[in-house]
Amino acid sequence: MAFFNYAKKELSAKIVYYGPGLSGKTTNLEVIHRRMRPDQRGS
User: Fold this and answer.
1) What number of other Cβ atoms are within 10 A of residue 6's Cβ?
2) Which of helix, strand or coil describes residue 2?
3) Where are the domains of the chain?
């Protein structure tokens, strides 16, 4: 689900991963976060 804040020109999205432990869910999200431009990503 995505939320648009037109006043701040900001998009917030929630990504839900489901799967067994040690299958790379957290690593996948960390790589996506790292590859985004710093001015376009949150904390």
Assistant:
1) 6
2) strand
3) 15-43
